[in-house]
Write a structure and sequence with these properties.
alpha+beta, four-stranded antiparallel β-sheet, 48% helix
Length: 248
């Protein structure tokens, strides 16, 4: 499992994601708005919007909220743009931040302020492209699925990796296979909690527990910024680190 996915799983287990549900909804609303801006308000002919709506369902976002976001998208998404920022945390950990913002100057100012406070460095765009590659990541509810049968179905669909974590499966696919796997899960009527393209570290870097905690606190501060959609890192989520975080 990627560091990003493992960190999200730990937070979900500890209830942190439930406590930040408003922030999660806000991110989904922006993704819906961006999808409508790019491809129109019809989910049938707009794959990005269809995926955003599915993720809204997976996050238990009320249907009224979704419909309101679609209806308001044409008027509120006009200045919305996708931007990314790359840099390093203490210990040389690479940080890749994806944003949807209507004011890039404000967003980068907020990100730079956190780097300055936490001893990190904001780099130039493109500087971390060699550290991360894009993969399709599906978080699937285990429900009553038989792990062996499900894994065989997914292998036939072309997935690269399946990780069983308590009540969920984390499925990794190549970008090219994302649509095929998504369609297969729909055909199987499997509950998908989240589906997205993520940036996965090609190689991870291990730090001592205290230093790793500082990096993850930095990640959380970035995630608190309204315009930030995703934060990726190449910190190794070792068994020792996971155990320490779960014990907090």
């Amino acid at each position: 499992m990627s560091g990003h996915s493992k960190w999200s799983t730990i937070k979900r287990k500890k209830g942190a994601l439930d406590a930040k549900r408003g922030k999660i909804f806000s991110r989904i609303v922006k993704e819906i708005q961006m999808a409508v801006k790019e491809g129109g308000a019809s989910a049938e002919g707009n794959p990005r919007l269809r995926l955003a709506i599915q993720n809204a369902k997976g996050a238990n976002m009320p249907k009224d909220n979704v419909e309101r976001a679609i209806n308001k998208a044409s008027s509120e998404a006009g200045n919305l743009q996708e931007v990314s920022y790359e840099g390093y945390a203490s210990g040389g950990i690479a940080i890749f931040i994806e944003c949807l913002t209507d004011n890039a100057q404000r967003t980068v100012s907020n990100i730079r302020a956190i780097y300055n406070k936490r001893g990190g460095t904001l780099g130039t765009n493109g500087s971390l492209r060699f550290i991360f590659h894009r993969k399709g990541i599906f978080t699937v509810s285990r429900d009553n699925l038989d792990p062996e049968t499900f894994e065989l179905e997914m292998i036939d669909a072309g997935v690269e990796d399946i990780d069983l974590h308590e009540d969920t499966f984390i499925i990794t696919t190549a970008v090219e296979a994302f649509g095929k796997v998504h369609k297969k899960l729909e055909e199987m009527h499997v509950k998908v909690e989240n589906a997205e393209l993520q940036r996965i570290a090609i190689e991870t870097k291990k730090l001592d527990i205290d230093s790793a905690r500082k990096v993850l606190r930095l990640v959380e501060e970035f995630e608190e910024i309204d315009e930030v959609q995703n934060v990726y890192h190449n910190l190794e989520m070792s068994e020792e680190l996971v155990a320490a975080l779960e014990a907090e």
